[in-house]
Amino acid sequence: MKALDELTFDNRFARLGDGFSTHILPEPLDNPRLVAVSPAAMALLDLDPAIAEEPVFAELFGGHKLWAKAEPRAMVYSGHQFGFYNPRLGDGRGLLLGEVYNDAGEHWDLHLKGAGQTPYSRMGDGRAVLRSSIREFLASEALQALGIPSSRALCVIGSDTPVWREKQERGAMLLRMAPSHVRFGHFEYFYYTRQPEQQKQLGEHVLAMHFPECLEQPEPYLAMFREIVERNAELIAKWQAYGFCHGVMNTDNMSILGITFDFGPFAFLDDFDANFICNHSDDQGRYSFSNQVPIGQWNLSALAQALTPFISVEALREALGLFLPLFQAHYLDLMRRRLGLTCAEDDDQKLVESLLQLMQVGGVDYTLFFRRLGDESAAQATARLRDDFIDIKGFDAWAERYQARVAREPDQDQARRKARMHAVNPLYILRNYLAQNAIEAAEGGDYEEVRRLHAVLSKPFEEQPGMERYAERPPEWGKHLEISCSS
Ligand code: AMP
Ligand code: MG
């Protein structure tokens, strides 16, 4: 275990120079205090979670103090927002404090979100509010616990600093961690500003730091792009299988590592709805739940365009062509597991599709359906679940097919089926109304609910006695919460 001042910094991105980021100091928050800390993220830095209670912790992550070896910098990037190219974005309210190595030799970017204005703030105040910081904190760590790759969150620091959104709120800072904060938009920036030298420098940096195995391939850039396509296909398959809606899949919010990144108005589905739009500001539904798949491919094409100086158009097209088949294979594999199926049959895809169609019209809770399906034998579980569906006849027909399918499985042991299914079907999910309850308590100065919810979601597959209320469907008020981009 390390003390806070024992972190080892090696700021490789900062060394790329002023063409890539701008040195700038965090603007401190008034009266900073710890709202929540993630023990799992602390462990990644070899830090003891208990030290988060010391005042110096809130001072460091509330912008008052800095390590001597930190080198806070705002990164420049651009990107496609809602389909339109925005030539200049960049860290408008976040700073890369530096890169830290842990004892295992892993490297983590420390990025302080809400740290004040930068040259990329445009009209913004450089701040993040408590509400959105708590949402990102809870989601990052919950996604990770579900096995869905994501940026991590070390802590949320609250404050008395007033921040104006639709109404007056309080400023907060979130310490985000990821092996890299390079986005698709970084490559787009250097491509569209016609800076081939810098683009090459960025490409070589990313290859060496994050895709070293690609350097051994005859065409390293192509190997890297293929890898990015593959990782995104797998990531989005996980989002779709677990009902995660990102909300703002602009290319500046897409990580080159294929991890869930920069999600604001995200949501996990309560009732299954393929057309669900979680971002209140997304009038056209560009980023609706089911659109995440074609948008994932669209975003990869935008990245491909930016990589045309390095890779032939032909090869880029071919690599892009891998996305859909890979997505489908991963998705079907995950859904088979969620249904308790261990071997593959040709009709499994149809079995999944018809279930989702029945759920779509039925208003069926997406998470609890799969959890309950694993509680008992296929026959018992479907008999119990049928009342949740509006098209009961349709569901009965599906249940018959499902039971016949389960009967062809090699392992018929019920205890093992349950263990297998519960290991992939969470009981607890970050529902919007649960986040909302925790946020309201925190805005009133009580951080217990955020901490408890975070703890429950860190073991989503494990039944936790006394925590039954976190596994419930949303109450009426919590079903259609409007989450906007303003954060
Ligand atoms: P986001 O919607 O958080 O992905 O942000 C899109 C762009 O707007 C990024 O360049 C952000 O840095 C910038 N931005 C968002 N909110 C603010 C803010 N309050 N102040 C300054 N820049 C912001
Ligand atoms: Mg962003």
User: Helical percent range?
Assistant: 25-40%
By DSSP (H or I, 4+ residues per run), the number of helices equals 16
Which ions, cofactors or small ligands are bound in this entry? adenosine monophosphate, magnesium ion
Principal-axis shape equals: globular
Order of helices and strands: EEEHHEEEEEEHEEHHHEEHHHHHHHHHH
As residue ranges, the low-confidence spans are none
Mean pLDDT: 97
Overall number of strands: 13
First-residue to last-residue Cα separation:
35 Å
Estimate the strand proportion.
Answer: 5-15%
The structural class is alpha+beta
Largest sheet: 7 strands, antiparallel
Specify Rg, calculated over alpha carbons: 23 Å
Organism: Pseudomonas batumici
EC number: 2.7.7.-, 2.7.7.108
Cofactor: Mg(2+); Mn(2+)
Family: Belongs to the SELO family.
Structure notes:
40% of the residues lie in helices and 13% in strands. It is built from 16 helices and 13 strands. The strands form four sheets. Strands 1, 3, 7, 8, 9, 10 and 11 form a seven-stranded antiparallel sheet that branches. A two-stranded antiparallel sheet has the order 2-4. Strands 5-6 form a two-stranded antiparallel ribbon. Among the domains are: 4-181, no CATH class; 185-332, no CATH class. 47% of the residues are buried. The chain is an alpha+beta fold and 487 residues long.
Chart the SSEs and their pairings.
Blueprint: E1 8-9, E2 21-23, E3 33-37, H1 39-44, H2 55-61, E4 73-75, E5 79-81, E6 84-86, E7 94-101, E8 107-113, E9 128-129, H3 130-146, E10 152-164, E11 168-178, H4 184-192, H5 196-210, H6 220-242, E12 244-245, E13 267-268, H7 292-306, H8 313-320, H9 323-338, H10 348-362, H11 366-373, H12 378-385, H13 392-407, H14 414-422, H15 432-443, H16 448-457
Helix pairs in contact: 3-15, 3-16, 4-5, 4-7, 6-7, 6-8, 6-9, 7-8, 10-13, 12-13, 15-16
The structure holds adenosine monophosphate and magnesium ion.
Binding site for Mg(2+): 253, 262
Organism: Pseudomonas batumici
Function: Nucleotidyltransferase involved in the post-translational modification of proteins. It can catalyze the addition of adenosine monophosphate (AMP) or uridine monophosphate (UMP) to a protein, resulting in modifications known as AMPylation and UMPylation.
